[in-house]
Amino acid sequence: MVTSRLSTEPLELAARLLELAESAGADQADAVAVSSTNASTTVRKQQIEKVSESTSRSVGLRVILDGRQATVSTSDVSDAALVETVQTALELARVSEPDPYAGLADPTEQARNAPQLALFDERIPEVDGEHRLAQALACEESALGADSRIVNSGGATFSTSFSSFALVDSNGFAGTYADTSASMWVEVMAQEEDGQLRNAGWSSSERSLHRLDRPEDVGREAAARALRQLGASKASTCEAPVVWEPRMAAGLAGIVAGAANGEALYRRATFLAERQDSEVASPLLTIVDDATLANRLGSRPFDGEGVTTRRNSLIERGVFQGFLFDSYNARRLDAASTGSAWRSVGGLPQIGSGNLSIEAGETPPEQIIADVDDGLYLTTLMGFGINYTTGDFSRGAAGIWIRNGELAEPVQEVNVSGSLLEMFQRVDAVGNDAQWFGATSAPTLRMSRMTVSGV
Amino acid sequence: MSDSPADVIGFYSTQLGVDEAAAESVLSSALGRGGSFAELYFEHKRSGSLSFEDQQVKSTQASLSQGVGIRVVEGDAIGYAYTEDLSLDAMRRAAETAAQIAHGSSAAEPVDVTADSYPADRYAIASPSTAVALSEKVDLLRRADDAARAYHPSVARVDASMVDEEKRVLIVRSDGRMVADYQPLLRFNVSCLSEVDGERRNARWGGGGRMGMAYFDEHSPESLAEEAARQAVLQQEAREAPAGTLPVVLAAGDSGILLHEAVGHGLEADFNRKETSNYSNRIGQSVASELVTVIDDATLNLSRGSVNIDDEGEVAGHNLLIENGQLAAYMQDRISSDHFGVAPSGNGRRQSFRHSPMPRMTNTYMTAGQDEPEDLIRRVDYGIFCKAFSGGQVNITNGDFVFSVTEGYLIENGQITAPIRDVNLIGNGPDVLSKVTGVGHDLEMSDGRWTCGKSGQSVPVGVGIPTVLVSGITVGGTQMRPGAGMSA
């Protein structure tokens, strides 16, 4: 397959759509175009289960007419379809209502010289089906071969993708970037003596191939996690310290970013409203959003409105630093864009994070566990039990019970709950073992107390 | 009027140049290296959304998504490719990519495609919402906004939206079958925030179905908005939820999410073919209390989860999954029905042409029992009553499932007493279903607000249940019950 690293096609498509919108009478407009090629191979029990490969492209347009805005997208990029898209957008805008805050980003905040963020691995477009197959096979083989009690598999998948994104607006901004990603995932089942199965999965996901974990290591980790759940039972209902393994702690960073969403602030739908510059967490906790890290999945040179991306501190030693904004919500709340707009072809910009990091602490994870007499080492969370407005947290869980400072027996079918603000305040140990999971990095964390519901 | 299947076939032929001859040509490329089966799934979807906040229209959106997904099956393995470009060249290239799964050197026999007809009457609607003037929809949103604000002085914010789509699908298979369907879908949402002395509580409500504007004849925007406002205001009085294993009474309707998680996913045949479900190899065995009969039914008129045909071109059906506690059948797609040697059950569904199909639920419900709903509450000394939910999840292999309650109450001495804060419940499928000790006579289907996710694909579904008493589920609150103990 032939591809060009800086494919001009999305940029040309977006520019063409913008030109049509401007000549049809839009006061302001921006257009986005995305092209991506995704390929993946799934094996199960060492046989091919699915092979897929496709290239997809689509365009989206936002128009503003007398302060009224509308967005339209299409996957039909013929010129006739683009003309129709513009007409639809203008018709929709006419029946919308004026919004004084609607508008494009401030041109002075937009990226002039996009930084080089190493988002594109030249090797990825060259990866062929045989390589994907070999990686998926190796990953699953190592999981299946890890122990005789590993008896079944949910499959292993290796996928690669490369894409380019272009944004142009009627203030003269025109930007494009290309990026790549590769990921692998495996799930296997360990068998109890009574025949019941315990499953676990593991994955690795990166911008470039050289950063991916080795397939054998991903497979072994999945197997180890399934095996250590053998014999799991419910715990008793109690209040206890909870140790969050790094992958679980990474989810907490996502919760903080969700609560720090400037649109949620406008809607008063976040427990962080009115808490800017106040202490919301233990002084051990520092959380950063940064879309400028080289070679990371959450990085990009400019955001979905062309605004230069940056590092945004969310929590600094327990103190909440501020909300993430796109330019629309920033205008509504008299704040500034933080370069946090994400733009899909199908709608208005939405606020989101880049790479999230919970800063590593000083304590070795073994010590964090050793200091617990009786508590839960949390390895799995289930369900949607987070209320961002009130901060109530209640989710299904599984893990390993800690007794006298040691990981003792596995537990499952329990629930962990608390108020998020109390939970963040109760962080009393942060590990020195920060690890990346996709676009998030986190270390082991301990909370001094949560409610564990069980028998 | 909505399109008939013949209209959809005509649409593809005249508007997009996709006819029998084009399909035959693409299928021959798909089977160019052998392969036991191939299928083309064409999709043309127009969708729109309108959102309303701060008492005015905030945004209007429209989108067009069209393309074809091409699947080549070789044994249990599939090759998949899609393209948004419906030119013959582009489709044949995608077909050649999908064909790589097969390793034969010679092509299969040419396919002779014939349009098939079937009774497509689950959601033939008079007035598709996609054809209605935007101003009419804005009026509905404004009425909802007014009603929510009028409900209670503490209602500080209202956000309302309406989303609709019309999807024309055309499925052509290498066995020569060509079928089409027109699938409308509408959803109306209201979100309310109640604020009292800085204490904020929120709730969402909404509904819809495979319906046009007639949905609002039976569900006024006011009633949907008042329900969202009622739930948000109620939360101001909510206490901490209890922690521990307690009896739970599930209200009729949305509590069907319990079935969706506790047994629904585990009975999807792909997991059972692979023996990764906790229900694998258990057909004919007892998996629930004798009071429990569960059905997956794609044939309910106008329901969000209904389909005339599934996304593999099979006529969708009414499938008995559990009968009086005994496991009767799995939900099948083409590959799994071949594996089990049974007829496809019409459960092969997919999110879009960019996705390959797999066994999925449609509308899943428990049939009515004999009990008076009030009696089920009276039978509980200390437990909770659950009415509204935000979502659920299941681990297929070990059977653990969760669902999150957003409107719940304490039951004390047989009476509903105080509302409780949001709480998650966790149980194990067969264990919880064996603890069903009472089933009401009041089966109710949820209004159309549920979307099911599996392996990264979302599809609209329905759930339903009568009032049900479960003698014990783990309730994940924060309030330690007196006497519940502190030891681990």
Short description:
The complex is a heterodimer of chains A (455) and B (488). With 455 residues, chain A is an alpha+beta fold. Chain A has helices at 9-23, 79-95, 129-144, 215-227, 246-259, 262-266, 327-332, 365-370, 420-425, and strands at residues 28-44, 47-65, 68-74, 150-169, 174-191, 197-206, 238-244, 287-290, 311-316, 319-320, 341-342, 350-351, 355-358, 374-382, 386-387, 392-403, 406-419, 427-430, 435-437, 440-442, 445-453.
Strand order of the largest sheet of chain A: 3-2-1-4-5-6
Q: What is the N-to-C succession of helices and strands of chain A?
A: HEEEHHEEEHEHHEEEHEEEHEEEEHEEEE
Give the uncertain stretches of chain A in residue-range form: 1-6
With helices defined by DSSP (H or I, 4 residues minimum), what is the helix count of chain B? 11
| Helix count from the secondary structure assignment of chain A | 9
Shape of chain B: globular
The Cα radius of gyration of chain B reads 24 Å
Largest sheet of chain A: 6 strands, antiparallel
Alpha-beta content class of chain A: alpha+beta
The total beta strand count of chain A reads 21
Q: Find the count of extended strands of chain B (DSSP E, 2+ residues).
A: 24
Instruction: Tell me the number of structural domains of chain B.
Output: 2
Oligomer, anyone?
Answer: heterodimer
Helix content of chain B: 10-25%
Biggest β-sheet description of chain B: 7 strands, mixed
Helix share of residues of chain A? 10-25%
Instruction: Estimate the mean pLDDT confidence of chain B.
Output: 95
